[in-house]
Amino acid sequence: MDKQQYLTEAYHQLNNQEYYKKLAQPIYPDTVPKIKTILDNLKTKKFINTKQHTYLQGTPPIRPRLFYILPKIHKDPSTWTVPHTIPPGRPIVSDINSESYKTAEYIEHFLTPLSTKHPSYIKDTYHFTTIINNITIPTNAYLFTMDINSLYTNIETPQGLSAVRQSFLKHPNKARPDKELLQLLEINLNYNDFEFNQEHYLQTKGTAMGKKFAPAYANIFMAHWEEGALAKCQNTPLHYYRYLDDIFGIWTHTEQDFAHFTHILNTHSPSITLKAELHTTSVNFLDTTVYKGNKFIDTGKLDIKVYFKDTDTHALLHKTSFHPRHTFKGLVKSQLIRFHRICTQQTDFLTATKTLFKALKHRNYTRSFLRHCLKTFRKQTHHTTDNIIPLITTYSTPNVLINRKLKHNFKTILQQNNYLPDHKIISAHRRNKNLQDYLVHAKIKTNNTPKPKYQTDSFTHIKWFYNADKTHIYPITHRLPPTTKNTVYLIWCNQCQIQYVGETGNQLTTRLTQHRYNITRHKQTHLPIVQHFITHGIRQLRCTIIKHDPSWTTKQRQKQERHWIFTLNTKQPTGLNIK
Question: At what angle do helices 157-170 and 178-190 cross, to 10 degrees?
Answer without folding.
Answer: 160
